[in-house]
Specification:
Layout: E1 5-10, E2 14-21, E3 35-41, H1 43-53, E4 58-60, E5 63-64, H2 68-79, E6 82-83, E7 88-89, E8 96-103, E9 108-114, H3 128-132, E10 134-140, H4 144-157, E11 161-164, H5 173-179, E12 182-186, H6 187-194, H7 199-207, E13 212-216, E14 222-226, E15 233-235, H8 248-261, H9 266-281, H10 293-300, H11 305-316
Parallel strand pairs: 1-4, 1-10, 2-8, 4-6, 5-7, 10-11, 11-12, 12-13
Antiparallel strand pairs: 2-3, 8-9, 13-14, 14-15
Helix pairs in contact: 1-8, 4-5, 6-7, 8-9, 9-10
């Protein structure tokens, strides 16, 4: 019998190699590298790490091989508290890989990514015995085939599907959005598929009576609808000095799924997710800066970013 998990994640995992330079080089010129970093990433990997930081029992189901990159992402997830023992061994598979050129002077970046090693799951990779021991199924657009294959079974077992979707033109987008119980998308995504210019109208156009629909607007907060509600509700963003927003959307999804697994309603899930994303945005990028449960609770209770950073620094000391 599989160990019970709060969240099973299906979707993209990435390894990012970040190359820092003083400024972008001109064509056919050279520039000295000031720093190189390798960090774990990808929509579902970030989300699972965020959920695990909040105390959720998380597992990744994916196809990975024995390459250095596969071993790196599995090790990073394990260190973050995510179970990888159910990862399916596939010699031809690996995580996505990005090489990111970061311009330190401008604070901008250029991303070259490769998803060729990624191998999607099949519906048969998610047997009923495994799903029975899961509270929430968290998926992204990469695993559309597997998610659609198991959606009827998940619904029969009462396991909600939380969808993170970034690409409006991805194959089977409409079917995946329709199959999900909780859809959380950016305003850019919502505008592209609904043609609505206002988030309150976009969330209504997307909702269709599902358990929960959320349209996020970064530091402008988010709009959401729950079940049969007719009027969109607004969750303001928590205020503070933003340091880095990369991955904040993924953190929102992971924290939402964690709160859902703990039995919170949609409004509660949105508040927890907003607080977790804010804590992360007020710090440098990296899984070591993901919000813990106490930090999220303090943020929701009116704590400031300065207080949270002071507490975080003291805990590291």
């Amino acid at each position: 019998m599989d160990t019970a998990f709060d969240i099973m994640g299906l979707g993209t995992v990435f390894v990012d190699d970040i190359i820092h330079v003083p400024a972008y080089p001109q064509a056919d010129t050279k520039v000295a590298v000031t720093r190189e970093d390798r960090v774990p990433g990808g929509c579902i990997a970030n989300a699972l790490a965020a959920a695990a930081a909040l105390g959720a029992r998380c597992m990744l189901l994916a196809r990975l091989g024995e390459s250095d990159l596969s071993r790196y992402i599995c090790r990073a997830l394990q260190q973050a508290g995510v179970d990888t023992s159910r990862v399916i061994a596939d010699a031809s598979a690996g995580p996505g890989h990005s090489v990111i050129l970061a311009d330190d002077r401008r604070g901008s970046r250029a991303i070259c990514y490769n998803m060729a090693p990624c191998r999607p799951l099949a519906g048969s990779d998610l047997p009923e015995e495994r799903l029975k021991n899961t509270q929430v199924l968290l998926v992204d657009h990469f695993e559309a085939v597997a998610a659609l294959a198991v959606a009827p079974l998940a619904r029969r077992l009462g396991i909600p599907i939380v969808l993170e979707h970034e690409w409006p033109d991805a194959p089977q987008r409409a079917e995946l959005v329709a199959a999900a119980d909780h859809v959380i998308v950016s305003m850019e995504f919502a505008r592209a598929i609904t043609k609505e210019s206002q988030p309150s109208q976009a969330v209504q156009a997307l909702h269709n009576g599902r358990a929960g629909t959320v349209v996020t607007c970064g530091d402008q907060g988010c709009y959401f609808l729950a079940a049969r509600a007719r009027d969109a509700q607004f969750q303001p963003a928590f205020k503070g000095k933003t340091v880095e927003t990369t991955g904040c959307g993924d953190v929102f999804h992971g924290a939402y799924a964690a709160a859902l697994a703990q039995g919170q309603d949609v409004a509660g899930c949105v508040q927890v997710a907003s607080a977790a994303a804010a804590v992360y945005a007020f710090r440098p990028s990296g899984w070591q800066y993901l919000a813990r449960r106490g930090e999220v609770e303090r943020m929701m209770g009116g704590g400031t970013a300065v207080e949270l950073e002071k507490q975080n620094t003291e805990s590291r000391d």
